[in-house]
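Q: I'm writing a short methods note and want an example of a predicted protein-small molecule complex. Could you take the sequence and the SMILES for pyridoxal-5'-phosphate and return the bound structure as tokens? Please keep the output block clean; save any remarks for afterwards.
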Amino acid sequence: MSIDWMARAVPQTAGLYPYVPGKPVETLLREKGLSRAVKLASNENPYGPSPKAITAMCNAAAGVHRYPDGDANALKVKLAALHHVSRDQVLLGNGSNEVLELIIRTFAGAGDEVVYSQRGFIVYALAAQAAGATGVPVAEADGRSHDLDAMAAAVNERTKLVCIANPNNPTGTLHSNIVIQSFLDRLPRNVVVIIDEAYYEFVADELGDSVHDLKHPGLMISRTFSKAYGLAGCRIGYAIADSRITALVNRYREPFNLNLLAQHAALAALDDRDWVMARVADTNAGREKLESALTEMGLSGGRCYGNFVLLRHAQSSEIVRRLEDHGMIARPLAPYGMADFLRISVGTAEENAEFLTVLTSVIESLSEQENAAS
Ligand SMILES: Cc1ncc(COP(=O)(O)O)c(C=O)c1O
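A: Understood, no commentary inside the block.
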């Protein structure tokens, strides 16, 4: 008789499903027999990492037979200096994804509630479920922006965590830190609040210095090297919080969660902030261009903050298919209940131009077909 492994797994496994990432280039090439594809589906940095980070990784490669510093002290010290906090306030993870999961696992278990937006970053829901906690999704006020009043109202004595991405992925909305602070002021002091700033560098001028401007005893601000720093493949993320909280979360951390190459890459990238911020400026300029082109075509899904834009069309899944025929990978947002929307990551100027050319011909072919059918 075959064993029912699901019955053997912890109960929350039944409701869990694996995170569905953007389609990898290799998969599309294989599926379509193409020789080239452009991925605009995972909000990666199309310019790559700082050349200094690449050199640092090459130099460090000969030492990978040794374990890395499990405490990643040099990186903690550098990040602490960047943010004017103490090194013990820095929590490091294998991507900010791991940071978020570790925090949620530390504070929430069976019987506890985790509050997040319905269209907030999907990992909060998955991590809460994996921890055996109860996720409390709160609908957005207008389908896009976090409804902070409703989120504050959803907090009760069972609430252990509140998670907010600012800017949010995938809806692209941004709240000012004044608005976020007034939300924090309404929350109980013993709740842990994750403000996920994975896209911070793209909005740093608008938002200001969240680490110092926002105040709440349970505040954990998370950031990543995956977006602006172009190090998504290295998996480096961090959070800044009260050192008593980071010490607790560290108990759940795997001993060498930040690998050797990642530590060297992150240190070098931090030494090359001007280069990184110049690429951020290029990306912001690319986003503006894409957004105005989509607006002109009547396809804009609204202003986005971060390194992506939203396209809105009733036939969005057909558009994805046809874009893929031309080697362009976009991200469908049906898993977020946004079936009409596609998320398009900002590419290089050339990739954005190519995308718009392909999109124009896809939209034309769709309307020709519609006209022929009517
Ligand atoms: C809002 C948000 N938070 C966190 C992450 C996780 O990023 P990483 O694990 O690469 O740091 C992402 C990735 O897309 C994101 O969009």
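A: Remarks, as requested: Residues 349-373 form the longest helix (25 residues). The longest strand covers residues 159-165.
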